[in-house]
Amino acid sequence: MKKTMKRRQFVKIGAAAATTFAMVDPFNRVLGANEEIRVGVVGFRGRGKSHIDGFSSQPGVRLAALCDVDQDVLEKGAEKYSQPGQKLKTYSDYRRLLEDKEIDLISIATPNHTHSLISVEAIMAGKDVYVEKPVSHNVWEGQQIVNAARKHKKIVQTGTQCRSNPGMQEAVKFIRDGNLGKVRVARGLCYKRRKSIGKVDGPQAVPSRIDFDLWTGPAPLKPLMRDRLHYDWHWVRDTGNGDLGNQGIHQMDIARWILGEDQLSPEVFSIGGRLGYIDDGDTANTQIVFHNYEKAPLIFEVRGLGAYAQNNARPKYRGVDVGVVVDCENGYMVIPSYSTATAYEHNGKEIRKFSGGGDHFANCIKAVRSRKRRDLNADIWEGHVSSALCHTGNISYYLGGNASPGQVLEQIKGDALAAESIGRMLEHIQVNDVDLNLTPVSLGQHLKMDATRTAFLGNERANEMLTRVYRKPFEVPAIT
Fold it and tell me: Do 109 and 197 belong to one domain?
């Protein structure tokens, strides 16, 4: 409780300081109440298009620049989004964009492994930031964004848009106010079919229109060993975080929000594997992560395989395939989307429905104008902690060793929640015709963490995996 109170006091003090800083800091352009905010979007082949639309629709906001390492994407974007008589600036190198003093806000939708690098350097260049989830590729670099935002008094919004939806806000408050009694367990679910990305015979050619060195950034510069450069980077450890850090970060964030936890879990354990096919991916497509918070556990389940029953239906838990289910003393809540939820009694009788979407981009702009961090629905600290929960789960998984179904069940003997979740996972694997004797799962290591120091206790290898070896000149700056 003392640690929590200290952090809350720090947040309040920091928010007040940010307001003062905006008025006196010569490094920043001081925005008037009605002054135009100029936005540059980095990476817009996919999710970045929503950033363009989201910010362009805000009053007093102008899309001023686009940046992408793919020259085709860049040229087509400039043609599509430029206004008559007002051609957009274009940059293939994000570093040149950051040098542009006319840009106030950098919006980032690049692959995961460059989120923190661009965010920290944008903050150091005097920009506010909107960065997609997960905000980081590993735990350490996420903390550097937080440090940079606090040091330079910048507004940094995380792309977990669920936090701006009134329906979700009301549902979370309903549980945290005790209307269903004490929370017993919060489950995040990512049951999303992911097909094999295939297996190539050797290095693949990178299209000449793409600056592959810049695309690779902090990661090791290796030959392209998959069929598609774009999107399938999610399933490669050097650049992605699997579906736990891709889709699952949204549900991880909601589950943690409901529990009211604002630090990393004191204990984490994971089990899973890349099962059902052999391809060029090396992240888990089937996985369970157990975060053992003191108030109640947070369990996260990833199911990437297609079949679940004889009719080949998509797997669901209490009617949910991608969402959150929260079990409480006096009932439970089902959250099947980003903006809707329903509370039930244990007998299935409906108690209350929640619904309503919001505008996450508008919330970001509100805070950019007010210079008050507390106006953000998803401040970078929230994004960092939820992203880091995905990372620590993956660390446990990657440190694991092959195990038979019997060894798995022996490991979790006496833990009813773990046994129930793993039992359903093993059933799912069997239905998908995966022989765990031929393709064993990875039984992760039980890891304990000192959240105040962001360090695992007594496990040097796990601590090494909190960060990575960065490739020059793309090192994420260490901010103190």
Answer: no
